[in-house]
Amino acid sequence: MxxxxxxxxxxxxxxxxxxxxxxxxxxxxxNIGTDVTNLPPASDVVALLKARQITHVRLFNADAHMxxxxxxxxxxxxxxxxxxxxxxxGESPSTAAAWVNRNVAAYMxxxxxxxxxxxxxxxxxxxxxxxxxxxxxxxxxxxxxxxRLNNQVKVSTPQSMDVIAKAFPPSTATFNxxxxxxxxxxxxxxxxxxxxxxxxxxxxxxxxxxxxxxPIEYALFQPLSAVKQIVDPNTLFHYVxxxxxxxxxxxxxxxxxxxxxxxxxxxxxGWPWAGGSN
Length: 278
What we know:
Blueprint: E1 4-7, E2 10-17, E3 27-32, H1 42-51, E4 56-59, H2 64-69, E5 76-81, H3 83-91, H4 93-105, E6 113-118, H5 122-125, H6 130-146, E7 154-156, E8 158-160, H7 180-192, E9 197-200, H8 203-209, H9 216-219, E10 230-231, E11 238-239, H10 242-256, E12 264-269
Parallel strand pairs: 3-4, 4-5, 5-6, 6-7, 8-9, 9-12
Antiparallel strand pairs: 1-2, 2-3, 2-12, 10-11
C-alpha cells in the first residue's frame, strides 16, 4: 500500500470519488491509519482535517479515539473492518452483529458513519479469506438492518487493480477470470443493497509495471505532448491521465459481468512520498 504523508506523523492516502450519486457528487478525502508511531491525539488530527476543510475520511480500523473525535463534525466517515477481522465476521453472524453494535451503532448519529469497508484488498492480500468475504458483507448488512442503520450506512469492500486482468485499453478490461465467481457475488450484493464498488487505484504501480510504455506525465496528471497522446483504439477516447483510465477500466470490467448500475468510489490513490529503498 502506498501512502502519501501530509505530516511525518500522519499516514494518509487519498480517498477520491467522482461518482457516488448525483446527490453527493465529487469529493476528495483522505484515509487515516492509526497503526503508526507518534500519532498525535485524535482531537488534533480532527482539528487538522477541519482546518484543511476535509469532508470525507476513511479509517482503516474502528479506532475509538478517532470515532469519538469525529463526532459532531459532519465529516463523512468510512470505517474499516481489518483483514484480521474478516474471517471471524464471515463465519459468524453474531460476531458481525457485535462488531456493528460496538463500532457503528455506539457512535451514531453523533459520528457521521456512511459506510463499512470490509477488509482491504482481501482477494489479493489474503485470498484464503475470499470464500467468507461476501458472507461477511451480508452479515454486516443484516446487522445494520437489525439496528435500523442500513439506510445510512453502506457496506462494500476495497479491491486493488490487481483483480483486473488487463487495464488497458479500458474498453476491453475484464476482471481476472480466477476471481469471477467472487466478484460476481460482490457486485450482486452491491446492487441489491444500493452500495458502490470500492477501488484502490494507484497510477504509481501501473506506471512501474508498464515498463516505460506510458510516459511519466500520464501517471502524474501532467500535460501530454502531441506525440504522447494515449488513445483507446476501440473507442478512440483520448486519456489525459492514467487515473481516469483505471476508473474506466473498472467500470468496463463491471459491465462485462452485466452490471451497469454500480458506481465506483476510489477509496485509495496516491504516489510515494517516502519509503523503502525501491
